């Protein structure tokens, strides 16, 4: 059987679609795990300082500082930073952990308020 250009085109499109889909699913699962990890960390953060009672202000300052550092790394000017694929995934994962921590702290605050 003779391979025509249309067969090469169809094979190229299908292989490109498969590789894009697999990388997006891998990225999605990494982001979801990072988000849930952040939610777990927030639960741990909110219960540990509550045991002693005097670490509330210090823990809040540390959380805010870490969140701001992660935001600076994630949202800095992309033209000045040379990022590669693995560092982009790392920054996205750190940002998802940060979002999970913030979400977890809000959920805990609503639980305490009700």
TrEMBL record:
Q: Which UniProt keywords apply?
A: Membrane, Plastid, Transmembrane, Transmembrane helix
Q: What transmembrane ranges does the database entry give?
A: 28-49, 55-75
Top-level taxon of the source organism: Eukaryota
Q: Name one Pfam family in it.
A: DUF565
The family assignment reads: Belongs to the ycf20 family.
Q: Protein name, please?
A: Uncharacterized protein ycf20
Organism of derivation: Ahnfeltia plicata
Q: Which gene encodes it?
A: ycf20
């Amino acid at each position: 059987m003779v391979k025509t250009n249309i067969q090469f085109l169809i094979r190229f499109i299908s292989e490109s679609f498969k590789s894009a889909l697999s990388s997006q699913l891998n990225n999605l699962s990494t982001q979801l795990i990072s988000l849930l990890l952040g939610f777990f960390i927030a639960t741990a953060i909110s219960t540990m300082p509550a045991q002693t009672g005097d670490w509330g202000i210090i823990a809040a300052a540390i959380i805010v500082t870490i969140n701001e550092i992660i935001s600076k790394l994630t949202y800095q000017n992309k033209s000045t930073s040379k990022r590669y694929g693995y560092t982009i995934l790392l920054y996205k994962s750190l940002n998802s952990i940060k979002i999970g921590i913030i979400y977890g702290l809000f959920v805990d605050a609503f639980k305490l308020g009700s």
